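Lab channel / #folding
Pinned by the channel admin:
"Please post every new chain as: sequence first, then the C-alpha cells as a reply. Keep commentary short and put observations after the output so the thread stays searchable."

First post following the new format, from NK:
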Amino acid sequence: MECSFKCQLCLYKFRRLFDYKKHIFSGVHHQKLKDLFPNDTFQNVAKGVPHIIFADPEKKNCLKHPIVGLSALSLCFSPESRISFYLCHICGEKSLPSDVLRHFFSMDHYSNYINCMDPNAMSFSWIPSKKMKETELKNRVKEEASMDLQMLHLPDRLMEKLKSSTYSEVMLTLGENEKLLKLIQAFKPGKMTILAYQKDSNRKHPLLGMQHLVECVCVGADEKKHYLCTLCGLTVGAHMIIKHVLSFDHIFWYFKVWHPSTLLSKECYSLYNPSFESMMLDLAKQTEKIHGKNDLKQVSLEPAEFKSVNFKSYTEALTTLEYIKKCSLKPAIKPGEKLEYHAVKNESAPASEPSELRAYYPRCKLLCQDCGLTLKNISQYLNHLSNPRHREMLWKLFEEGIEGYEKKAHFFLHLHLYVMECFKKKQPAIGTTLIVSCITTEVDAEPFYICFACQECVCQSLIEPHLNSRKHVVHTLLFENPWRLPFGWENLQDDQTLKAKAWEEEMEARPKEVVLKVLDMPWSVFYRLSPPTFGKVLEGLEQQHKVLKNEVPPCQT
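Reply from TO:
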C-alpha cells in the first residue's frame, strides 16, 4: 500500500509526508489559512504534523489485514495544540489516533466500506445479529494499491472546540464555514448511493421495499441526506441505507407484509450460509417479477426544515415530515400469495451416495449420562459400568437398591451397531444427538430409546426404521436447524431430498465425532417405566431430568 497526502485546504497532493510537512510552512498554505479563518492566528507551526501510523514503515509491515477506505479518512490536527483526530467519512465515525487502527480493522468498517464502494460484494439477506466471519468479510475486500490520506489543518481554537464532539457534530461545525465546506466536499469519497445502485446495470442484488424508503435531502447541500424506512420503522444514515435494504431484517418484514406465510418465524433463521442466501435470492427474484420496480420517495427540505427534523427518532421524524409535506409517506400495501422456494437443481437434488457430499470419517463415542463421562468406544463404556464410582453415582441419582454389580447382565445396543454401519458406508446417522438410550444392567432387558426430536419412546427392534423415517428426518431438522428444510417440504414427495439436507446438517454440526448418550438405571426404575412412552418416562424420571437431558441440544423452533 502506497499512501499519499492531500492538503484539504490547498487541494495539493504530496507523495511523501516530508513534502506535505514542507508545504504547511509555505506562504501558499498560510495565505489559505488566513482566507478561511480570518479571526484566528497561527503560531508554532514548527511543531509540525502528528505521527501518522499509516506512514510508519515499521507499522505498515506489521499490519495483518488489508487497509481500505483510507482516501475517505481525514486527519484533523492543530500543530499549536497537538490535538488530532481522524474522521472516517465512510462510517461517520470519529477516532483518536490511538484507536484508528482498531476502527479500520473492525467488522463494521469493512462492511460499511463494501456497502458504500461495492454493494455487490455484500451478502444478500445478511443477518445483522449474526456477525459474518471475520476472515470471510475481509477476504471480500482488496487493499487499494494507492490511497490518499486527507490532511485537514485547523486553528487551535477550533480543534479545542471539536476535540470532544462526535463525527456529526464536527461535520456540522465545519459546515458552518461555507468556504471550508466546499473544500471538504471536493475530497469526499465517491460513495455509491442507493439510487445509483438501483440504476446500475451490473447490480447483483434485488432491492426490495424501495417504496417504503423516504429520502430526505437538504436543499443546497445534497450531501446532507437521511432516510426513513417505513417498513421497519427506522431512521437510517446515508452510509448505511444499501446495507439496510440488503439485510435479512428488512427483507423479512417485506415478505411478512407483502407475502405473508412465505417465511417461518424470524427465530428459525439462526445461521447464514450459501443455501440460505440462495433461498432468499430466489424468493426476492420471484417478488420482483410480481411487483416490478418500485422507487423511493424523495423529500426536499429547506435547511431550516431539515434541521427541525429529529432523525434520531423514527416516530418524531415521520410525524414532522408528514406535517411539512401535508401527506402520508407510507405506501398502500396489498398482501399477495405465499411464495414457494424453487431450489437450484444442484442444491436440492438427492444424493444417491452420501459420500458424494463429503468424505465423512467421524469417531463414535459414548456418554454415560449418569456420570457425565465420555468414553472413547463401546468397550470402554462396558468397562466403566463395572466401576465402583458408577455404582455410587447410580445410588446417588436413584436412591434405590442396586443388585448384581459383581456380575453384569448382558445387553445389546442396536443404536451403536446402526451408527457404526452408517459410518462404514460414509453416511451420517441422523439425529442421534437427540436420542438417549435407556438400559439396565441388573437383568437381561432390551434397551429402549427416547427421541427428543419426535417426542417418542422407541423399542430396540424399531430404532433403525425410526431413524430412517421421514418423520424423524423432518423433526430432527426442525429441532436443530429448521432453515435447512426447503419451502413446501410438507408436500415434498422425495424423502431422499430431505435426507440429503439432514446429512448436510450432521456433517457440519458433527464432522469429527458422534457421541451416543446412554442412561443406566436400576431394574426397579426400568420396570416401572415399562412399557415406555415419552410422557411416562419424563414423569417417571422427573427427579433425574437434568441427567436425562445432559448434552441434548436445545430446540431451535
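NK: DSSP finds 25 helices and 16 strands in the chain.
TO: also worth noting, The chain has three domains: 2-186, 194-325, 355-548.
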